[in-house]
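Hey, I was hoping to borrow your eyes for a little while. I've been staring at a protein lately and its backbone has me curious. You're getting the sequence in one-letter code plus the fold written as tokens. Would you mind checking whether the tokens look sensible for this chain? Here's the protein in full, and shout if anything looks odd to you:
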Amino acid sequence: MAAGIVNVPLFRSGLIDIGANFAPRHTDSVPPVSDLRFAQTGAAYLLHDPFSSDVDTVVDGPVAEGATAGYRNVVAGSNFAVTRGRLRGGSVDSMLYYTADSDGAGWSRVGGRTLALAITPDDAASNVGIYLAETPGSLDGYGLRMNVKKFEVIEPGSTPIVVTLPEDNTGKALRYHVGITLVDGVGAVYWLSSLEDYQPGRAWLIPNFPSARILFVSTAGQSDNLYPTLHVKTAYGGNASFEDVRLLDVPAWTGSNGLALLADSFDRPDNPQTLGERWNAQGGTWGIVDQQAYCVSSDGAAINAVDVGQADVWVVANITAGAEIASEFGLLLRQSSPDTYLSLSNHGSGNIYLDRVVEGQYNQSIFATNAKFAAGETKRWLVGCYGDEYRLFINGNETLVQPTIDSEQQHARGTGFGLVSHHSQTGQRWDRFAVYPLIFALEPELSADVALVRAIVGSVQNYDTFTDANGTELTAHQPETGGQWIIDAGMWQIVDGMAVPSGDGDHYRAVVDSHEDVQASVQLVIPSEFPVVRAGLVVRRSDPKNYVYIRCFVDDATQLDNDEIEVWEVVDGRAAILSKSYLGNYFQAGTTSVLVAQVVGDTLNIHLDGVPQLTLYLSPALLNGTGVGMYREAGTSEVMFDNFTAAPAVSHR
């Protein structure tokens, strides 16, 4: 059946005010934290593994919980454990796959069949991924894996394809809702949703659940027997996790159209007059021959388009060159009027150009890349359009290293997409043309009846702008809201309206008694010269020997332009690093940054200047501390602290 136009709601910003009484010199907002645990609704799951029974070591056997079928199969040498409803990966390369029955059969290929789960990678992991594998206990077939700072897809028979740029930092250890949806016959669609809107710099948005972004559209592979597979290889011993593995059929995505706004394989009788009702020829004569589209004749530019109702899309097509490749042929993108559009086409030189056409006149070539057709050769083009950026993949390999920018943006909102052919016709053909939404709303089977309860942050109960006389001891100072400060280490004073530590020892900490589940924030004031920075927040402090600290890290002498956020836990006085988030050259002289930590249950979420940076899970020994506060190390440049807040966060467990 033909897919209709998907209505995508306007996206929530994901920002909430953390307290109406939070006013004077700094107003802070932080994206809320969501719970992506799925309710057991009795839906027609082919497989549902909720990991609801805590076990120290995961073993082979039937999946007995939830509306489910299937068997777990743990590859020898793997190190998995289940805790608090999550499958946690160990410090070695580990793999778990599912079979449909005890004989080891997989699941058949059906259009709309979807593997979906919640996943939290480890920022230090070599890779954490999910697969619909073609062979049990392998990483072949369809896969989506998260490497440090990038996402990659695995197509059957190909090497990994980078679908987000490493400098986008989109492979961070955040919590995601992930899916692989099969297209009927051949191929798959890879999609991703996050707890909150995530878009650092110019990276393409990862929207918050229940909206999702398509990362890649595959038209490779047609295995009839597939095995849901989980894989993790992490350096820090168990921060990567998987939750609520489900294999199900999504009725709205069955058949060849899948998630597409438009899909046409031209599998109709030959017709030298038209491509069909939905197509709108606006130059030349177009027809169908041998179940492929072709331009029958043209005296100039020939285009044929369909208005799909959205501008931010993926366009995929198989394009075959004729006996000669001197003519120009390719795809029409973002048509806003009959004579204004973008033309992505093979030119007579053999290069591929993205040309801007305005009111029927060539305007500018936005880019050119050398990806020549041979006579009679077929190539699969996949084009992503988002805002003013375009990315082109050819045969699964990214041709453009960087997103291509259309600085004038005349076509940023054009919603017409289709086929384009210029001048002489030399036998080129188009097949398996489809347009997919870049961002879309998940179907009810993947969004309704899901326990997606956001943590509720209450009114600020600890608030301090450090307004006092210079030299005032922090313990003698009265915060605007909340109790007195407790000094764990160092000497803390008020200087120029900010908190500043000094003294003997290596670690300076000042805390207030707040809540186990809490959201804390502080403004870090970076000095004009700062060769070294190690400063941040303390949470879950139960006594001076048991706490978690989050530190912003800069050390140009040891790692130039590689700033970090690190999370450390201290248990019985012994410190161990849990995870880190890489920031590049982030902190600048004379600036301020707002660090936010939200800890709910065993989950810690960290934001820096409003951008989510890290999600990880705390040790059971650190689930009850109620102290929160500030942290700085000796030898650090004079980073100062301002506008400290703490507010209770209601558990979503």
In short: Helices lie at 444-447. Residues 444-447 form the longest helix (4 residues). The first strand starts at residue 16 and ends at 17.
